[in-house]
Design brief:
homodimer; 281 residues; alpha/beta; eight-stranded mixed sheet; two-stranded antiparallel sheet; 10 helices; disordered N terminus
Chain lengths: 281, 281
Amino acid sequence: MLRVTIEAMGPQAPTGDMPKPAIPGVQNLIAVGSGKGGVGKTTVAVNLAISLARMGHKVGLMDADVYGPNVPLMMGVRATPHAIGERIQPIEKYGVRIMSMGFLNPGDKPLIWRGPMLHSVIQQFLRNVDWGEVDYLIIDLPPGTGDVQLTLIQSAPLTGSIVVTTPSDVSLEDARKAVHMFLQVRVPILGIVENMSYLTCPHCSERIDVFSHGGGRKTAETMNVHFLGELPLDPDVRIGGDTGKPVALADSEGFVAIACEVIARSAEVRGGRGPRIDIED
Amino acid sequence: MLRVTIEAMGPQAPTGDMPKPAIPGVQNLIAVGSGKGGVGKTTVAVNLAISLARMGHKVGLMDADVYGPNVPLMMGVRATPHAIGERIQPIEKYGVRIMSMGFLNPGDKPLIWRGPMLHSVIQQFLRNVDWGEVDYLIIDLPPGTGDVQLTLIQSAPLTGSIVVTTPSDVSLEDARKAVHMFLQVRVPILGIVENMSYLTCPHCSERIDVFSHGGGRKTAETMNVHFLGELPLDPDVRIGGDTGKPVALADSEGFVAIACEVIARSAEVRGGRGPRIDIED
């Protein structure tokens, strides 16, 4: 009976060979993903975008987490995008051009959509938004390895991807799945970020490894991908997100370092010196 | 152009009126959900199941998070279920009968599936697993308001649901969406759990509100649903999950309290004294 169950699911390996037309004006298209939710994927995407913008780059931020679009809250922006001709205009905040489902479906009503409807909105976000000339278009993926991720990474000409994890074993278990997903569909992995690495007690300044520590770097080494850096579990980062004033606005050291790594790794990929990708099946 | 975009998505309100045949032998079917991932949904599901079992109830735990099935790791069990006749046998650990995609797809390879395949496996988990006589079958939903959640809550005869959140505004934003989702499909909400409420520094014993505090209770009051309790951000809880020895094995006070609330609220719902559900559209 179990055999029948598995057969009913069928083999699902995506080919990764769909055509991926370039997005005019976009130099680097970078997806930020995670196996597990709540690890700080959107926090990394938002602060990375702001850090890049503060370095003088032209930056776009596409919130592809259509079910839980937290980018507007974290960027402190509520607005209704309008269109010029056929092109939806992104909303600019902190020097970053933003598009999010949260702009189109504000409030608390959930979107209960099935796959095909997601594909349509993701494609529109990618191709019908007037991103203009941008050096980096950061895509905040939904967590996991589901429909949206698959559609996006199969149809978008991604320069590379970033996998965010916490150091907990549970999070790392899912992060490894995300790395495998990107490898399977032949998207270069710029590297792994370990978020919530440790907490410094605001009272006694002692270090607390709330979610363990070091697993991100170890996983990167084991899987032969770059380690982009670790970020502390800093209540200020959470407050920055909750109040719409991300910490990167004040040149947060950790995020600047990660932005520099992302710039370097993206240049490597474009120059054909990216990490060799082997597909094992 | 924007108008066209929105029309292309169409109205998506599920009806909630699909037939929901009972699952023979299952007294209470309870879904644990969250808007956002990483808030401790699986931690709550696992420790709730163990707490109920330690109180003498017969308990099943169905891991419906097919993309990130963390239940086997958290319960410390790796096994291959076998079938007797047409029925898949759950794996028993700590007095809880468990079924998880992690048993069928162990290791790091992700499942990159689209909606319809998920629906099939969820239905098999619900109806082809030999749950036997159980007082409580706890379903660990994937985070969010997507395909799997919709299929499951439309087709399963749920007694009620639990929404897990952290106190951060970003998490609460998504938790409100999850509450609305359950309301829309007419599933009684047993209540909201606030997880990672606060951290007690292991060095100086001072309290740290890492993810803010109190938003879960406030949200429950505002939305007129029960508040089931708050759980601290306790490194021991994370360690318990990472090592497969959940804290509830030692009668964790917080989880026992939540288990008692769940028992009471489920009895209310079964007795027709559950929270009145109004659909607003």
